[in-house]
Amino acid sequence: MGEITNNVRAQVLVDALPYIQKYNNKIVVVKYGGNAMTNESLKQAVMNDIVLLSLVGVKVVLVHGGGPEINDMLKRLNIESKFIGGLRYTDAETVEVVKMVLAGKVNKDLVNLLGRSHGKALGLCGTDGGMLTAERKEGPNGEDLGFVGDIVKVNEKPILDALDCGYIPVIATVATDEFGQTYNINADTAAARIAAQLRAENLILMTDIAGLLRDKDDPSTLIPFVHVSEVPFFKRKGVISGGMIPKIDCCVEAVRRGVKKTAIIDGRVPHSILIETLSNEGIGTQFR
Question: Which pTM does this prediction carry?
Answer without folding.
Answer: 0.93
